[in-house]
């Protein structure tokens, strides 16, 4: 396989620049801080009572669950009918417009905030299925670590840039804005940024071709049939199977830490908003170095070995987070999170792209990867929210994440051992990763 030209690669990576602002501004900084500020400690929603931070995490878990259920159907449709780019456009519109709708979220419109937040999350996650599935189509195996890291790096740079713009708006309050209106204006900016820069991606990514000529069943039936086919192939690939199990468990911890860190700093450590936002900007900058550093290390030591080291680092971060007491502790730990955050995301994506078999059904295979990740996030976020709601102590939620990382670590070690065994017995198989 030949890696695509620079224009296509840059266009693909530009989607990370476009949509990563959601991940930073909406899920990590401004929105969770705003959500806690405009809601009471105990809130009533749909006839039930919740701790406000728990409702936030439950909402995100519900959105990821809906994406996990629907993405296998959508991605297999994209593969079999050759309209992958159209689905990427659909989820971009859904996510960006929902972010813009958060401009109208106030204390009296909690339902709107929850609904728009859920739809924005679905737009972000759904789009990633189709975006990620382009990677094995445009990059040869030996280039996938580097190109995956390029995407994440551009995403961090773009999101930090918009974060700084939003931070300036909130701090200076131009045009007579009050603080609440200034924060909501950043939600509108996210929607405009996302759909605007995504046009570069839509203009440069190649059209995809259908993998089958006739459709003997409906879209839903074909969708689950494709998912079963992918599952059957994964079962026959021992290294890939073990990697996905490890990925499932450590993703429970990684994504939950990233999504709940700001709420933890605000609610448990009582850090002011400007300090929290500044800290998250630092995390994003450090994450750029982390993504590129992990890509270089994987070329020297192998993907699985580097993943083992990164998961060990995450275990240490969770234990330190449980014991954290001061603002200085939070800042130091946030820097450590930045270093391993970009690395583990980028390396996980490229490792899967290397281990998956050569196939035209890339969207279906990445849907399987995406479902694995999204279900892990549902479990992670639900567990975090439930423990917080039940014990009224978010520190217990942080400590519980260690269990997920330990199980994930065990499976990645198992994948590495199995890879060595396969390489010795059948060197022509499972050869993409450096042992």
Task: Tell me what you see in this structure.
The chain has helices spanning 6-26, 30-38, 52-81, 84-101, 110-133, 135-138, 144-172, 179-204, 219-235, 238-267, 273-301, 303-323, 327-355, 362-391, 394-425, and strands at residues 42-45, 48-51. The protein has 15 helices and two strands. The chain has a two-stranded antiparallel sheet with strand order 1-2. The protein is 80% helix and 2% strand. α3 (52-81) runs antiparallel to α4. The chain starts with 5 loop residues before the first helix and ends in a 10-residue tail after the last helix. β1 and β2 (48-51) form a beta hairpin. The chain is mainly α and 435 residues long. It is globular and about 65 Å long.
**Percent range for β-strand residues:** under 5%
Which series of helices and strands comes N to C?
HHEEHHHHHHHHHHHHH
User: What portion of residues is helical?
Assistant: over 70%
What general outline do the C-alpha atoms trace?
Answer: globular
Please summarize the sheet with the most strands.
2 strands, antiparallel
Mean model confidence by pLDDT: 83
Question: What is the assembly state of the chains in this entry?
Answer: single chain
Query: How far apart are the termini?
Result: 22 Å
Contiguous low-pLDDT stretches (5 residues minimum) are 430-435
Tally of individual helices: 15
